[in-house]
Amino acid sequence: MGVNDTRFSLCEHVLYASKRLVDINGFTVDDTIVAVASPLSPAPRGIVRMSGEGVIKILRRTNLIATDWSDRRTQRFASRLDLDDLLGAIDVDVMLWPTSRSYTGQPSAELHLIGSLPILDAVVDRLIAAGGRAARAGEFTMRSFLAGRLDLPQAEAVLGVIDAEDPSTLDQALSQLAGNLSRPLQTVRGELLNLLADVEAGLDFVDEDIEFIEDSDLIDRLGGLGDLLTLASDQLRERSASSSTLEIVLRGLPNAGKSCLLNALTQTESAIVTEQAGTTRDSISVSFEVEGYAVRVTDTAGIEWRAANDPDAEVLEKAQWQAIEAASRADLCLWCIDASEGQPVTALESLQGFAADAHSHKNSIENWVLLTKSDLVLGSPEWAEALRSKVAEMFNVSALTGDGMNELRNRIVGMAERIDATEVGSVIGTAARCRGSLMGAIEAINQAVDATRMQAGHELVATEIRTAAGLIGDVTGEVYTDDLLDRVFSRFCIGK
Predict the structure, then answer these.
(1) pLDDT recorded at residue 93
(2) This model's pTM is above 0.70
């Protein structure tokens, strides 16, 4: 039975785990796959993962377990693996799941060993020579899905957990992995199938004038299911909107032109601009669109600290923590440095400290330097050249005359495009994939309600209910094609 043959009838209550998917684009799921499952550097320990029916045979052939091994318990034990005369024998800790009670629903094993790249490569080669094959991207999670251990939104959430760069996106991914999206959708689909059974049973006994469900009850139950789907769709829309917004934070010394730049970028008067340094104390966020991309810019207080006995010290300290918090969730930090300053040492040191303190910010955050108030100078100051090797972008801007602002907007659009292209790898990919199906299911339920009210016939009602259930099955993965699996799991890395 190939993948193209596995679109189950909606009336079949059959778990996929009870069937065998024999072929996926030329590979069988009974193959034993091998992959390095942990970062190669700077991890002191490496993990090589295997899954498939031949795991025990491979472990026997490599003398990691005895040839008469028959223990069916999940366990961890120490062993040794002989690589060759060059590398010799190495110590290996083996984690073995000899039955289907594993992540993939197949016999599985993990080899925990030293995280040296040459040794990991040699171990993988040794296991492949003993009967395994190299895993494809996302194949471990795909096998878990095919075995019924995860549904499709949960499988996508695995990738969301891997790619999460801040606590908010990690919480979303973990929540989806725990089933907060899957459970309501599975409930709705199950109820739709129950309603479909009642409606079609009534059609079988239409001559005897037997009703298995009254129209008023049918309308009420369909309406409730439609409300649940609408709620799920709204949650996905909110998640998509929040995750796809490019977050920009403005940092720099007081009076570096941040507030003026915020107003020029957003074409608003959101920030108060004065000649007095330190006007901005509270962070100010403004959302706008540029070339159709959602962007949110946050203006922060200028970087300055006061002695503890200064009357403004407490207020300034809170303002600095607000700025640090805004930077921690930003995709892009625009460092505003007054180009007319002779030698802005403090601003340069702050930039270096920010870039070095990477643990509190997204791994993918970019630092750009804007030489503001460029209308007051000719060209870039000499000290600016020392910055070019430390930042992704640097250019002159003047919020007053508009010089450089178009270039800045174009660069922001380019970054928004890059982020939008990679967003499919996170949980937002579920929202993009599911939005159309959920809207179609809601529309089908509404059509079923209208057909019931107009007494258009339960044949039409059954058709709409079947359509809605099928579309929800597309979302959860109970109804799928090989193309869909390729789109989802090709975004994973090898070993996941």
Answers:
(1) 92
(2) no
